[in-house]
């Protein structure tokens, strides 16, 4: 791989990408719910080589008091990369990139939560990247959203996300690192609320025509919806059966005792 | 008290926008007056103050000698930084840069970097040994909203006038120059606010306080997009995004001509 | 200029300095009042190549509460140089020099203000250097004082300031960078309240005899008074005509509605 | 409310320990179940997640090129760092490392360093010019007490699988390796809590809240101690320390076999 | 000394160590009480080449309020090395080593104090190393403990401390720098409450067998007790005579006016 | 309570000064007793503790190898730093240096630097490659006012005994020295407080709390001034400044003889 120069690579050849995927194919995605005992909610995501852990603490009192908002909860998502998750050791202190990603992810998640129900509180969402290969912010975001659901926080919808973009002149879904390093690469992190297709996170880097953009967003939304199915399935795995049991044990009160859980997955 | 006044202002801005109007009489897709003063610092290699209506920001460039990154031995680099300097607003404070200033810096940086208007190989002096780092630093001077676009224009204006110092024996010869920084394109950021389900360009401070969501589009030239940034807690529909892109190309083209 | 060695330069030749000025001549000085819309008061100063912006916010509540002084306002002047205002890019973080200058400027300005009238508040004065060529702290100080006046803060007097010192054995007013770099250079930043000639800022660097000091302070005070005239003229330009108009429009109440403005310029 | 629950838990833990029992049914000198997952990061040169009961911590190593210290021109070095990452507990916060995290880092570091299991001369590439620095970074993932021992096992596990990148012309060749990091011993930390004048090994979070004092013993092998750390405001008698040492050798030997 | 390689040195030869001491002999130790006028208590220690100053301020209100403990005083010992106290200039910012030492010393001192008598307060103990040659933390700790006594803070006992360990295969008391640099060196900082022999600080670095440990702790405790005598003597020098005088002057009230002083030295 | 006592002390200091007297019986232009202990640290290249009455401060020097600045290839440099170390006063705190400590450092630094008593060319080892940096670090030990003058004397005393380490092959040979740091002058700072319109030299802590303004004069020798610093919110008249200068020369001359 190192022998071939980047501008000699055919990024899509006979409908196959460098790692054998089709243009509209996600890397293997695996989500596990409820992996951190002390957290109010948590999730673990493996997406290609990316490995991500997310935990939710809250809603809890926002301190110091002057940061409290009397109309809504603050959503404080902190995205961090482990020092060993990148080829050259990352400085342990959070960098400017991590701070920006934390900000846009906080904003995307806030849209998905009924934050107005929790005035004066904050909801902390911690996202830790343990291994990386392009697309960590969207991997972090879907882990965070599932962790919020696991925490029983009332939500409009899950946040589903994926990368989409261009490499070697082709519009492709979920770029890996090699594709992201293409000379003409364009990377578009995208997150939506799948129910309404509202766009809650959108960034872009690289040269793209309007036509290419239209193809990209089309493909990206399709990708988000695939991710959404995996998110729901992971939650169902934990809560589907639990709820069946709950339903059996306690009868009409089930809804009231776990009202938040119901809202979040649809 | 101050808050009450701002709340009233926000209310009236929202009310007007619902009717397709704006407080200052602009059309929804109209920029405020853009005024650029170049060469405001002799010490800087390039500089500009931009007034976007009452919003004012200053940019200055310094060309600094550095060593190349291990994986790009024949390339220099650029670095754009913006500070929400407290001179510009009663709500800014000194201290380590907060998320808002970092986002502003990085969005302006990407808008320029991703346009590929600067060939980083042009910034190489001696391969593997010495390269130029182009520092573009922005300081807010008066806040009436939309430092994204004002900063983008200021950064570009300062870069367009940037002189490259003469280098002899690996050292800068003071006050002598070997040429100008080459930019093959004029990338421009256009920022939109979504207020009451309408899209307005170049929001003022009041409109920023009223906005549900923000979207910035950088066009590298009349045909290419080169950066996006969606911000704030609201959302956009696909057609709203497409609307922003259309306007960004149109306004970008107009502004580009004047630079 | 680079060809000639510093110790071969004649810093005063036939009564003329390296930039053509006389020994007691200031560099061109231009002051503009009210340049920052959001600030309570502001000023822009061009003094030779120096370009300085100053803004005043306050008096406003001093926070956190424990910094409040029940007997007077805190005066918090922050002097900062833009990264591009010096030949080698300045580190964006404030350096020790900037912190020291901020301290002595805060103290000089405090003397000029009736701070005892605003207990528990602070008055923030921000000074930003956009371009520099020796003498930025005095340029910043006179900008700050005019900005305080523009903010309508009651003052004993304006703070007028200048550099004075020695180069090539000659005592000269308002040294520029080339003069400041003379092998025997002495730099004396000086600020006074012109009405009483009280010295509110005085620093000095370099070897100076008592006799040279006496000549310097003489020349420095003369210089401050020249600066004072430019400061007053700048304020008059903004307020003189405004006050005439005000006087016409509203009659006896004019004094009461703008009491602070009147105090500040005499 | 939360505090009240913890107080009750602490009370019952103390009560049980007085009777020689523990909440989770363990003997006083018994470890929780240790579960190690290796190779959890491809990017790291070595990595491991360790579960000690419900306590979970992850370690990863990076081999970085550096220059030797002036007084040890033929030696590389190691650096162990641990962060009390807020993902692991509602009581951890982001920010500059506090004393507790620094102590944790330094005790794990000393446990490995002082065992001399790594010959720093093995980390020399070119004497006086280039050496390896082995960074071992630990992130807490779930706090149920005793990050000292869990971290020590995780650090050791990650180091045991660490590959040494290939170096050509003084640069790392990506994804190629010249061998593995050599460890001549398997140093292990055993941590004890003194509760109600009894000594318990591997305290849970509740037991940590109940403890008067903490004592950690690192054994380099079955015969050698290599580090101690006494912590917290209580004290130990000589015989208590000796008891800890005996158990540390015994448990260290057992765990060592499984690695 | 530099000519001989470390592994050729005989660290104990004919019962004498490299600096002429016996294996169980401390370096010369000198303690002076009450050396800092502004402090509530203070002490100066010279121990071999080590020179240490300690000052106590408090008990005083712990601020901000949320750090207060309603059941006891916080003991905040801060150990710092002067930049010039080590061969290569130390960075002025506190390093991780200093932070760890501060933590274990705070904990050791806390055990010696009746902290439960001073709820919601903190006791600040500042330790400054002016010159160093192995064993500064134990030198700092004994200075701190004497300073606490000097501050009249009620204590269970003084904290007595010493280093002990191994060099050249021999178990020796109070290692100096040359011994600490032996290839097989083991350093064991140890602190006890001498009355009960309770161990309040214990660290260790280096390879040691169980048998060596037993010899070390034996020797270490003996060493601590020697140190304890010097500490008591220093306090007696200041307070012994003062108390005699006090006893003469005021009669039965002496005990009540200085109750805290009495508790601290036994 | 504490504040009340200090207020009373300040009141009585002011009252006395109005009558031309001082609490401790000194004349207005008289220093407290100056006591200097040299060589207090063997590790430092030079060191001194200075007692100015009850005010105490310690200075130590370290000679460090560095590279010259690009614009002075044949010169080393000095760096003076002072910390308001909390050991010295209940009102000092640890943390990043505040403005007061920075001013103290810089005024003492300028007093020495601007006297030109050290020829920076003497600090050059190999032109363009290696030079000495003389670090002078000051730590406050007891605060009874006027750390400016006490610190200036301590810094000078430490520098006067500073040994220059021997350098071989670009490295310091430990515990061997090639000579002493050369000082051609003995610059001294004299600090004055303006209290109740009188000028007093060497203010105690109570007098500092009473002062309207502070003025420091550094004399390089008996004929030359070399630095000024006016501080605090009050003002001085020209004749007051001249009075300070006269006294500074007189007292400087006396103290200089004793060093």
Number of domains of chain B: 1
Considering DSSP H and I runs of 4 or more, what fraction of the residues of chain B is helical?
A: 25-40%
Q: At the third CATH level, what is the topology name of chain A?
A: Ribosomal Protein S5, domain 2
Topology-level CATH name of chain B = Ribosomal Protein S5, domain 2
Structure overview:
Chains B, D, F: Residues 30-165, 187-251 form the Exoribonuclease phosphorolytic domain. Chains B, D, F: One of its GO terms (cellular component) is cytoplasmic exosome (RNase complex). Chains B, D, F: It is found in: Cytoplasm. In chain A, α1 crosses α2. Chain A has one domain: Ribosomal Protein S5, domain 2 (2-Layer Sandwich). By secondary structure, chain A is α+β, with helices and mostly antiparallel strands. Chain A has 6 helices and 11 strands. Chain A is globular and about 55 Å long. A 5-stranded mixed β-sheet of chain A has the order 3-4-5-7-6. In chain A, 32% of the residues lie in helices and 29% in strands. Chain B has helices spanning 2-18, 99-113, 147-160, 205-210, 238-258, and strands at residues 34-38, 46-52, 55-66, 77-83, 124-126, 130-142, 163-168, 171-180, 188-195, 198-201, 213-219, 225-231. Chain B binds chain C through residues 40-45, 47, 54, 56, 58, 60-62, 64, 81, 83, 85-90, 94, 135, 137, 139, 141-144, 174-175, and chain C through 2, 36-39, 49, 51, 53-55, 57, 60, 78, 80, 82-89, 92, 94, 124, 126, 128, 130-133. β12 of chain D pairs antiparallel with β11 (198-208) of chain E, so a sheet runs across the interface.
